[in-house]
Amino acid sequence: MRSRIYRNPVGVSKFTGLVLILPFIIGAVLFIIYPFVYSFTVGLTDNNGGMSFENYRNILSDSSSRQAFGVTLKYTLILVPLKLAVSLLVALLLNCELKGIGIFRTAFYIPSILGSNLAVIIMWQYLFTSDGLVNQLLSTMGIAPVGWYGDPDAALFIIVLLRLWEFGSTMVIFLAALRDMPKELYDAAKVDGCGNIRTFFSITLPQLKRIIFINLILQTIAAMQEFNAPYMITGGGPLGNTRTIGMYIYEEMFRYGDEGTANAVSWLLFVIIGLIVMLLYKFTEKLRRD
Amino acid sequence: MKKIFLFITALCCALSLSACSAKKERPVTKPDGTLDKCSLRFSWWGGDDRHEATLKAIDLWNKKHPDITITPEYGGWDGWSEKVNSQVKSGTEPDIMQINYDWLISLSPDGGGFYDLDELSSQLDLSQFDNEVLSFGKVGGKLNAVTVSVSGRSLFYNSQVFSKMGAEYPETWEDLIALGNSFGADGLYPLDLDIQSGGTAWYLAVVYVQQQTGRQFISVDGRLGFTVEDIKAALSFYRQLEESHVIRTVRTRTDEDGNAALYQSPEFIGGRVAGVLEWGSAVGKYESVLPEGVLEAGPLLTDEKGCSDGWLIKPSLLYAVSKHTKYPDEAAAFINFMLNDEECAEILGTTRGIPASKAAETALQKSGALKGLAKESDDILSSADTMTISPYMELPRMKEFYNTAIESVSYGTADADTAARQMFDSINNYLEKIRK
């Protein structure tokens, strides 16, 4: 049998590699590097058109921007652990071999596909109005109705709940990892007389360490950039208690037309997210290695 | 490879810096006095009544001028100014825009943000407008926009609820407070004020204090006329309205309506909230959610001991042409059609208020269409000693200051004195920063 000889269509020279990745480089320069650098320079441009750190100084001294950073951190700290816990729990339940389990797996993933579209937001709004379905359910149980939108803490809770409801993507990643786990480990645990709880903490959880870390990073970044849900459900109120930093950037840029502040805050958010990811990397390094 | 990467990064930096320091201005197309075949984009915001009438008017235009096609872009008020703001900043705005009064300051501080309509007088008949009305659209000596209608906010009530309660429409502030107490016994509210996009809460408080003091809140050239004490009086008055059950508290309103506008609220549609403070040019959306003839215009509230009527008017809407349009003559011809054409005026009716154009007003008078709430509101305001709103008063950043103060007073997170001082300082600092 004659062996085929493949020839490199672009020839072999020291620039071959560069030519091959040129489309990506052009795309990256136009749509990533240039906007990044441009945004940074706009953030450094003051009202008189000069270059200074005035925008950054104003942001740090502005109480509403500090409040927005605080709200974002609070939201992230509440949502991310809850979402990871719920996703893992549901993934464990959906990992069993039952007839028709595929239907349940699909059903639990549907909220993630819907995302924060207008229909979901309107549904959410009506669920939590003063005479909405949630308060009607509470009153049938003899619990006094809650002012979901008017109470600063309850308003943030509504948004957390919406995002928690959309746990499908995180759950699917956990489920894939669970289904890839070696069966032998569980068989050995059974032989050793381990119960379900012991098996979970001694086998399942250690095996999922890397996946938990990936989900932790992805969810932290998404939560820090939250915009849609508070913008559409609460408009940032009451008393600015649901105004996330994403909303603050939007308002500065498009409502107040302050490009310098909006870009400077974007860069601060970028740095903060970078720092949080670095810290998470550092603190979980030993755990992940063990 | 490293050198290439460094080169690209340096190039990006250089390009970004040059883009920041010298934004390239696109050349302005000069008018040639002829109408060429083209397609133009026209954007506006409003309620369904305005959308339907405007689409019909565009159909009429397209029939009369088959060579100049108008593509409509429209929506509700929420988020509209943000959309247009970003379009203008990125140079992708429609050729013809319905704009708000304060946008002249934010989008064209030196008069160069929109096309100078004085240059398009061959297509646009400006003789139909009073000089005072035209002056509303002038910035830096350039006619940036033409006023569609002059309007003010006035009070409208649900007549069914009032007759059921056996109540008369209030004429004085004391009447309003007394009404709150009587309506409150049945869990009703005679009025609603909001701190969202409408910002009617601060508006009414300003009218009240202007009547008490005779001082204008902000002058046309952007100077704060109120003292800290005046702002404190306005905030205290607002709190009194809440306490007297005239209006819902911010918290109750937010709980019941969420983020929805009042005309979409079951509380307003169901009659629990029986009044609204609204522009005569925009009251149609409230009128359309109630049975026909139920919403009625009430008298402007006055104070017998007060110095002036204190109520405010402004050009409620204006038409502007993008400075980037390639077809200025055609855009001006379309604006002329929307403002002065008799047939068009009959189709549009009072969906944008009572027309400022004499030709359009005459056409409506002839056809008997000059009626309805917009007309009633216009008549009521015409008979009062009104002040012209400063465009600075309606800037989005200013609304943030008002809403923050009112929300904190309503929630009790700040007393009226503290909130007034903070608001006074914030407004003064901001006005100083942006004043021309």
From TrEMBL, chain A:
PANTHER family: ABC TRANSPORTER PERMEASE PROTEIN, ABC TRANSPORTER PERMEASE PROTEIN YESP-RELATED. It comes from the Bacteria. InterPro entries: ABC_transporter_permease, MetI-like, MetI-like_sf. GO terms for biological process: transmembrane transport. It comes from Ruminococcus flavefaciens. The chain crosses the membrane at residues 12-37, 75-94, 106-127, 154-178, 211-233, 264-281. The keyword Transmembrane helix applies. This is Oligogalacturonide transport system permease protein. Keywords: Cell membrane, Membrane, Transmembrane, Transmembrane helix, Transport. Residues 69-280 form the ABC transmembrane type-1 domain. GO terms for cellular component: plasma membrane. Its main location: membrane. It is a multi-pass membrane protein. Belongs to the binding-protein-dependent transport system permease family. CDD domains: TM_PBP2. It is found in: Cell membrane.
TrEMBL record, chain B:
Coiled coil: none annotated. Residues 1-21 form the signal peptide. InterPro entries: Bact_solute-bd_prot1 (IPR050490), SBP (IPR006059). Keywords: Signal. Gene3D superfamilies: Periplasmic binding protein-like II (3.40.190.10). The keyword Lipoprotein does not apply. It comes from the Bacteria. Pfam families: SBP_bac_1. SUPFAM superfamilies: Periplasmic binding protein-like II. The keyword Nuclease does not apply. PANTHER family: ABC TRANSPORTER SUBSTRATE-BINDING PROTEIN YESO-RELATED, ARABINOSE-BINDING PROTEIN-RELATED. This is Oligogalacturonide transport system substrate-binding protein. It comes from Ruminococcus flavefaciens.
